[in-house]
Amino acid sequence: MNEYDSNRIYDIVSLIGYTKTLVKKEADCFVLNTCHIREKATEKVYDEIGRIRKDFKNLKKPLVVVSGCVAQAESNEMIKREPYIDMVIGPQSYHKIGDLILDYERKKKKINETEFDVINKFDLLEKISNSQNKTSSYITIQEGCDKFCNFCVVPYTRGPEYSRSFSQVINEAKNLVSNGVKEIILLGQNVNAYNFNNKYKLSSLIIALNNITELKRIRFTTSHPKDMTDDLIECFTNCEKLMPLLHLPIQSGSNKVLKLMNRKHDREYYFSIIEKLKKANENIKISSDFIVGYPGETEKDFQDTVDLVEKVGFLNSYSFIFSPRPGTPSAKKELNNIEENIKRLKILQNILENFQYKNNKKYLSKNCEVLIENKLEKEEKYFGRTKTMIPVILDADDSKIGELVKVKITSCNKKNLFSSHKINKVKAA
Ligand code: SF4
């Protein structure tokens, strides 16, 4: 979501004459768009600002803006602690950044804009042309969350659930597709809770996008198991452009820990959703997020997670040691032993990596459909992804960017597939 927000911030500041520079000392404004989901995010922001201050010691001070969830969570504290910061802007207010910069230039007065102004944000973003011209593009359809998992800052930094209007999303999608985008990834902190006016759900958006002729692939992320409704699961049967990979975080395989986390579902419920998904599309793969060492997690709880991972066989998953986020209920809990946490994380990551590698090996010598996204920066090779998002490095040329091709996979490692064979174009569905 931050990538999407950063691109929109750039679209807005370009309207008041700003352009990107790759030469740091040429910049007269820095926007640090921040994420607060992991520990140390705040310290990283101060470190980066320290580096800017050092680089500009003998130069004119640039305008320094901190946007995103760290700005929302820390607010005025940031300006007090680091006077080099001129402006903090929360994630629901960044649409105002152009006006705020002009205002700052006139008054030279520090600005703190951390209101939840999400309706106005999306109304304004709809009117700003999206300048990204990529093969794959994000569209934010929903923000905020009402689930209040005990470890998570999102309900506090992004606010309550809000769904964009159906027509706004479809217009943005059509605009992107007419600019060459071939894959759309619908985004939301709790994307499958999308509900516009009790009339349009995530399934309504997917069905509408499936009818856009030039669009080739649809994905959505991130979903909560509780919101995996039957109409949405049916889309994996009926919408051929919806890719067969679902990111469905579970966080732990232990019912006790899920309860402590306030996840509002248990492992049996999660298994029942996986079963329905497999019935809807036998090729579907699942990826997930795991928190290891949540306060109160015992060895038995961890083994429940290992058991669940082995039963489901996840791909492309993320796993982290629990890190307390200030202001959340979990932050008050006593931490588990760190050495034990590190040991458990290694065991889990090893199992997840083995699944990935085993899955990648299944592609060897087989033909596979790839959407070519871009040329690699440092090599004469191209980058694309399979239907289940596995990166593929292949031989191609610029004319093939944005095309669906069939390639034979000649080698692989734990993360990537490689092809050194001739590519064949995939016929339109
Ligand atoms: S459902 Fe996701 S975004 Fe919402 S509180 Fe839980 S972890 Fe955070």
CATH class of the largest domain: Alpha Beta
List unreliable stretches of 5+ residues.
none
Distance between the termini: 30 Å
Q: Biggest β-sheet: count, sense, barrel? A: 7 strands, mixed
Estimate the strand proportion.
Answer: 15-25%
Q: Name the CATH homologous superfamily of the largest domain.
A: tm_1862 like domain
Instruction: Count structural domains.
Output: 3
Q: How is the largest sheet built, in terms of strand order?
A: 20-21-18-17-16-19-22
Q: How many whole angstroms does the radius of gyration measure? A: 23 Å
The count of helical stretches stands at 14
Small molecules in complex: iron/sulfur cluster
CATH fold-level label of the largest domain: pyruvate-formate lyase- activating enzyme
| CATH-level-2 architecture of the largest domain | Alpha-Beta Horseshoe
Portion in helices: 25-40%
Overall pLDDT metric? 93
Q: What is the β-strand count? A: 22
Shape: globular
Explain this structure.
With 429 residues, the chain is α/β, with parallel strands linked by helices. The chain has three domains: 2-116, Rossmann fold; 119-361, Alpha-Beta Horseshoe (pyruvate-formate lyase- activating enzyme), CATH 3.80.30.20; 367-425, OB fold (Dihydrolipoamide Acetyltransferase, E2P) (Beta Barrel), CATH 2.40.50. 36% of the residues lie in helices and 20% in strands. The chain is built from 14 helices and 22 strands. The strands form seven sheets. A seven-stranded mixed sheet has the order 20-21-18-17-16-19-22, covered by helices on one side. A hairpin with a 3-residue loop joins strand 9 (195-196) and strand 10 (200-201). It is globular, with a radius of gyration of 23 Å. The model has no long low-confidence stretch (mean pLDDT 93). Iron/sulfur cluster is lined by residues 145, 147-149, 152, 154-155, 189-190, 224.
